[in-house]
Amino acid sequence: MKNYIKHQEWQIIEEGFDPHLNKISESIFSIGNGRMGQRANFEETYTGETLQGNYVAGVYYPDKTRVGWWKNGYPEYFAKVLNATNWIGIRVAVNGEELDLNTGKVLEFSRVLDMQLGTLTRKFIVELRSGNVLGVEAVRFCSLVDDEAGAICYSITPHNFEGQISIESSLDGDVKNQDSNYDEKFWTEISKTEQNSFALLTMETKKTAFWVSSGIHTEIHQNGAPLGLKPKFVSKEKYVAQQFTVDVKKGETTAIYKYAVNLSSENYTKNKMEAEAVATLQKIVAKGFDRMRQEQAQAWAGKWQNGDVVIEGDVAAQQAIRFNIFQLHQTYTGEDARLNIGPKGFTGEKYGGSTYWDTEAYCLPFYLATAPQQVAENLLIYRYKQLDKAIENAEKLGFKNGAALYPMVTMNGEECHNEWEITFEEIHRNGAIAFAIFNYSRYTGDQGYLAKYGLEVLIGIARFWAQRVNWSIEKERYVMLGVTGPNEYENNVNNNWYTSTIATWCLKYTIEAIELVKGMDPVRLTELFAKTNFKEQEETGHWQEIIDQMFYPVDEKLGIFLQQDGYLDKEQVLVKDLPASDRPLNQKWSWDRILRSCFIKQADVLQGIYFFEEDYDLETIRRNYDFYEPRTVHESSLSPCVHAIIAAKLGDLDRAYEFYLRTSRLDLDDYNNDTEDGLHITSMAGTWLSVVEGFGGMRIKEGALHLHPILPQKWTSYAFKIGFRQAVVTVKVSDKQVKLSNESNVNLEIHVFGLAHQLQANSNLELNT
Amino acid sequence: MKNYIKHQEWQIIEEGFDPHLNKISESIFSIGNGRMGQRANFEETYTGETLQGNYVAGVYYPDKTRVGWWKNGYPEYFAKVLNATNWIGIRVAVNGEELDLNTGKVLEFSRVLDMQLGTLTRKFIVELRSGNVLGVEAVRFCSLVDDEAGAICYSITPHNFEGQISIESSLDGDVKNQDSNYDEKFWTEISKTEQNSFALLTMETKKTAFWVSSGIHTEIHQNGAPLGLKPKFVSKEKYVAQQFTVDVKKGETTAIYKYAVNLSSENYTKNKMEAEAVATLQKIVAKGFDRMRQEQAQAWAGKWQNGDVVIEGDVAAQQAIRFNIFQLHQTYTGEDARLNIGPKGFTGEKYGGSTYWDTEAYCLPFYLATAPQQVAENLLIYRYKQLDKAIENAEKLGFKNGAALYPMVTMNGEECHNEWEITFEEIHRNGAIAFAIFNYSRYTGDQGYLAKYGLEVLIGIARFWAQRVNWSIEKERYVMLGVTGPNEYENNVNNNWYTSTIATWCLKYTIEAIELVKGMDPVRLTELFAKTNFKEQEETGHWQEIIDQMFYPVDEKLGIFLQQDGYLDKEQVLVKDLPASDRPLNQKWSWDRILRSCFIKQADVLQGIYFFEEDYDLETIRRNYDFYEPRTVHESSLSPCVHAIIAAKLGDLDRAYEFYLRTSRLDLDDYNNDTEDGLHITSMAGTWLSVVEGFGGMRIKEGALHLHPILPQKWTSYAFKIGFRQAVVTVKVSDKQVKLSNESNVNLEIHVFGLAHQLQANSNLELNT
Fold first, then answer.
1. Phi-psi region of A151 (alpha: psi -120 to 50; beta: other; left: phi over 0)
2. Which domains does chain B have, with CATH numbers?
3. Rounded CA gap, A322 and A325, in Å?
4. How many helices (H) and strands (E) does chain A have?
5. What is the pLDDT of residues B119-130, one digit of tens each?
6. Is the pTM here over 0.80, yes or no?
7. What is the sign, positive or negative, of the torsion defined by CA atoms of A396, A400, A402, A406?
8. Which are the catalytic amino acids of A?
């Protein structure tokens, strides 16, 4: 855990330069626009510790997996989010001496991520070895409006010298992934061109043959006016640059304006890409830096207008929730159904792949409530498009008849993780994908999706579960053997309660969905049954048998659901009794010891209770929470938010607040000592959930919006805005009052503390509590 | 499965050349002498499919492991048996045209491994593209007498031409391991020298810094007489050679005699190695090829004299058992306690490491009965020497107070496998290491070992088990969670019956051993307790508590021991009902499906019954055998022998014979389709066990030798010889008779079918059956 980020409501601020924190800050200060993004690397040369990262959405590499002993069904590759052409490079030499914060003496330094404006600003004063002192201010952003573009204004002011500065503004395609399994580089060069004032570089990924065409334009201004300098074009392998030499005087500022574009072959015909890059670059150069920056601020204002969460009385909490929302918007805009939300977004390489069950379990509710319906639908369509691959994936493992197993990690629908205990066993993800369809339908009230896309996915998933269980002659029940639940500190367990529960839920929901579509659109149903070769009587009959006779482990004495068979055989120790020096377990204990222990990485039984809350009475929820919470180490970023929501429901406000802080400031305070690898993007949606579903107690029941707001002691008030069907409502919770503002033109029924209220269009309602 | 090896009692014969079988034959026709060994690669250039393999005992490389996601406690490296300098190379060009069986037309071809003489002979006639036809006969061996040396006689006879042959006899250190994890080469060059008629090359392994100094001397003879040609010395990176050019005539034979030595820095000071290589080479050159070959035949005659198994009436069975015994002797001679028996010996790279639990569980009984007692003792001392490393290994996993966990795979005592489900979980190996101490003591009657070395190992192992179990509040018993039994088609199971059984057996045996040493050598005991900081009362008290309250899974209804908790939850299918196309499962099924199935890779419960047979009545053994045998797929080479022994005990002669054939001809007939990777050396000891303990029914009970011989229907008779304590006895079993010949000078009590007989020194006893 660290504590060096200044608390401020709208800004993330680092003051002073500590090279040991640099990789953490590179993650935290990351910028992006859903189409491209990057870590907060320096523009100028930096020879210290850094993790270079520039990413272009959808561009990946199928890196050969590393496994000890290959076994049938193992994925061939582990897809990597690719570090792509570095477009920010501005090499600076002062009278021949290279500017490098690793060799110079840093006198002042600050980094500011402004979440209102959507810009990253870095300022420093450095004394070079020669004794020359200069100040630099670098402002950078990835444009939300021109989402293939970014711009930099890099200003240099000599403090105590005059002389010559040489500048090399580059596109560097000779990059590598730090997590390359076999130290390979993944890019080859296609072309590099000088075209008028532009330098262009097109690179291709090996194997996947994605092209990324990048272009830059660089202008030098002095004292606010352009110098009109022509750049010298420089090129070497996988590298182009524009060189300038300028005379500088003490106290006078030289500003380098750099405009850059990155186009992906996912969106253009390859042979037209260079021309398109030129056109895009022309467009932004014509706009100019200031207008781009203005448009950026406007676009961000729009996002905040729709989705801000305001917390009064607790700056750390306020900053944190905004940071989480900001990073989510930087990662995914929902405009392209081919894209998804990588666990690290555009902020690091770790975890590879773009899509985990995180998307369905944690991110979908955030986008349902804060974005146009199309965004959530695109997330579902992403999986629909990959149904064939999910069926192939199940076939590779021996399943048949259209059974679908969605991958644990994927880029294109194929499984690309490489541990059997995850890929083969963490099959509960299949349930989350079905649950997302339910959740979408419940939230939007739109059953059309079910008929058009959803049911086909559900049938594949239901078929998988029906084949995955087997009849136990011992238990005289259907059992589910050899699984890994959400708690990845267990592997290959039998009858994981969560997995078995979500499996039969899927079967039930698919039967319901069939009935629903039957009533709604029987022609479509017939068509779908033909397409999937579905034998209704036979298959649903078998499903019903499984639903009726499934085994779920419970402990009658304790009155709890058992995480899995034999969980109570483990030595029962509580987290509070663990020495601090043993934490986090995953860094201190051997894997063996973790596996055998009772400690839980992240919500498992409680994840099921969170999903299916309505099926359990409050006492059952409390007993399970009271049993499992003290055994949970929360060593997954996805854990605290679920606990926060359940704690809030149970009125355990102190724990709920503690969990909220932990999830919301996870990266800002580097709780798990791993922020340097990148941010925990998907769990950021969980932070939002812990406010809205946790403190706000928001639920959708029978088509209506319900709230049970509670206020953490430390806060004066909090407010969040949600879109629900046609309505938009802001909920502000303060000590004695819940204020509801309907900002839309439709009336809305809203239940607060179980009482129904009619909230007229464009009106407010104040309820005393 | 293949069937191309000719059946012959003393020879392994391949006739005709099929390039697709070449890698299989390279394994089968491997030669070695315990100190060095090699695959049956060709001397001349071969551009077809081949797996080059020359190995020097004890020389390994710690190759960086390949794992997807690193976790604490994972081994850093996977030790590789190293492919070392190739000393057999004899490049031949006929009038400038390279001799290569891949490009020439092979008119005749045979390979013969003569197990009586210890030589590999290859003959072929080839037509080159030029139309030139020549015959070649190559005889090669690794000398048992000069165990750092090998020799080749390579004779060439032109059939239809005359002209010039150029010959390049080489030492090639530029070799690589095919299973290198990161395509690295593991050797660097130290020196290469020409010294009189010798060419010398010294190579060093990276990281481990082993040196191997090799030297060759090459002589050319024509028509039986030396030509006295001086070689031309050729050298390039990691390579030296001796070149000759000779005129040849149709029908006249040119013979190339090549003498080679390989010395390891394990046995010499590095700076003296080249001189020692020269001296060794001088010694064998002085002997000459014919005398070396003669000595080789004599040495092998000695080995057969002591350890032959003679089967009459079944050539395939006879050939097979001799092949197994022959390969065991080629792999391990027992002279050096630093060496052990790698699963592939000197015949391939797969499995890496030199030592698995195979040594204790399968090989030790073979050496106990067929070799001087020192050989078995050396195998035990190997582990004693690695006790510190085993304690370190356990510490890495969180164990303390001198608990020892021996590695699953090792070269130097450190764990070097790289799958958690094996390294952390297949802890039953610790039991086999304790059992070997018991087995040695039981067989030899020598308790001195226990006091001197054995007890210290037992205390470490017992401490491990005592810490590895935990108290289950659910079962009110001690349980053993998260293990993998011998059946590797299960991972991370709870309460594996075999593991729990051998664990408590270890505790009991250690308590017994303490009492024994207390009586025998109390001073040593005090010393040992001080050294190990052993608190007798406290520790043995706790052990006794575990012994008394251990949980073992059983099914009362079926009257069987359960392989593990929940085994009967699995879908119960029998192997006979599996489609042939699904076999072998490990090549046809996904790992997931295998894990969830009831199918058993190798004896698991039955392994325990084999070890602790005396603890169970015949009906219990029969019920367990009848239950588990039909579920066992025998996809480990270590499986059929145990089943053969139990089947024989239960009088199931047909199955016993079937298992025997399967284990004994596993490699000759390439049963598991993997002989090309190398031979299954350690399971070859199991073949011997299935004859002697299976058909012969040999057991040691209360210090006496017991036999229960039965004769497979297909056999006329079989005979084996065993050394038991001071006596040597040959047992010949025929249809109506068991003939016992005491070939030693001591009297022997021997029990046949439960009846005691006194077998006088140097006398025979014939018992009618």
1. beta
2. 11-62+79-305 (2.70.98.40)
3. 5
4. 22, 33
5. 999 999 999 999
6. yes
7. negative
8. 488
